[in-house]
Specification:
With 345 residues, the protein is an alpha/beta fold. It contains 11 helices and 8 strands. The strands form 2 sheets. A 4-stranded parallel beta sheet has the order 2-1-3-4, sandwiched between helices. Strands 6-5-7-8 form a 4-stranded parallel beta sheet, with helices on both faces. The chain starts with 19 loop residues before the first strand and ends in a 5-residue tail after the last helix.
């Protein structure tokens, strides 16, 4: 028998929340504190990600817990303290990413149904906490913005992994979009060129050449199909064309190698040492793969590699800041976000 329920007696649906769009900027991450314990917690999360260290077998777990997490945090904590934002008691990466989110929110404030937030893939604020906060504000659509110009599985993909994990536990999921890599975007290349030229104009010397240093990656990851190296090359080629420089005046290198595997070459530190040995006295280093200054730019490049250069006979070394929350840098992020929000705003 068919039962007909009168419309008037049907249970009313819950009132729908106002439709809002969440924009979540995501960068790599940072320890919460510049001490051994804080760095250990951060490194454990970072190095336990199979996107970062693909072989998470027993051997790696023994090395990680028995050696790396016993030795490395103390040394890295010293490095973090060299660059730490003492006033805010946080790393520069956290300070800058917050500023990027705040400036983006201001730049698109005319879209009053868009809410901008920021998160770190490792450490705090976590992706989970910020997605929860955005959905609590009524955001039923979410644009995730991995702040990596070049895609790699160890950066962009692991951001998506974590977002998907969060959404997997939600009954009412927001509609999801993710911004693409922007390694050859004209706005990005123009911003890099403008930033480099502006900084060079402030120097008391003229560099003989510029080194473009990107974060490294094990060669075997690229051999398995990661497009990262090709995108770094594309960025450098585009920047050379934009600045009118050939390959001898704008070099491509890779930094921050870890462990005993072969990583992408040429290595930044070895290249800088060799340049000094070959008689180059004045260089500048730019880090186009980083959207914000962090340990790898402020300590590894600006301090460690500057010392390597001078120790081997170099004289004048300049580390060019990342785009950060500068006007050109924010224009890149703003244009990227507005393009990917089409149809939602």
């Amino acid at each position: 028998m068919t039962v007909v329920v009168p419309i008037g007696s049907a249970k009313p649906a819950l009132a729908a929340k106002p439709e809002r769009v969440g924009v979540l900027l995501v960068n790599l991450g940072t320890p919460d504190t510049a001490d051994t314990r804080g760095v250990r917690v951060y490194l454990k999360e970072f190095l336990s990600d199979p996107r970062v260290i693909e072989d998470q077998g027993l051997r790696w777990k023994l090395i990680l817990n028995g050696i790396i997490l016993r030795i490395r945090p103390r040394r890295k904590a010293r490095d973090y303290r060299k660059i730490w934002n003492v006033e805010r008691n946080e790393s520069p990466l956290k300070t800058i990413t917050r500023a990027q989110a705040e400036k983006l929110a201001e730049a698109i404030a005319d879209h009053d149904h868009v809410v901008v937030d920021w998160a770190m893939r490792y450490g705090n604020p976590s992706i989970r906490s910020r997605i929860d906060a955005l959905t609590a504000q009524g955001c039923d659509r979410l644009l995730v913005v991995p702040l990596y110009p070049q895609y790699s599985a160890a950066t962009s993909a692991t951001v998506c992994d974590e977002v998907f994990r969060v959404l997997a536990g939600m009954r009412a999921q927001p509609i999801l979009r993710v911004t693409p890599p922007y390694y050859d975007d004209p706005d990005y290349i123009d911003a890099l060129a403008a930033s480099i030229n502006a900084h060079l104009a402030t120097l008391p010397f003229q560099p003989e050449l510029i080194v473009a240093s990107f974060h490294g990656m094990p060669q075997k990851y690229v051999d398995k199909g990661d497009p990262y190296q090709a995108q770094c090359i594309a960025t450098t080629d585009a920047l050379r064309r934009r600045m009118g420089l050939d390959a001898s005046k704008l070099l491509l290198t890779f930094q921050s190698r870890f462990g005993f595997d072969e990583w992408l070459q040429p290595y930044t530190d070895k290249t800088i040492a060799q340049l000094a040995k070959d008689g180059v006295k004045r260089i500048a280093v730019v880090t186009p793969g980083f959207s914000a200054d962090c340990l790898e730019t402020l300590e590894e490049i600006a301090q460690e590699n500057a010392e390597i250069f001078k120790h081997n006979g170099g004289e004048q070394f300049a580390a060019i800041p990342c785009l950060n929350d500068s006007e050109p840098g924010m224009d890149v992020i703003r244009q990227l976000v507005l393009r990917e929000l089409q149809g939602w705003i």
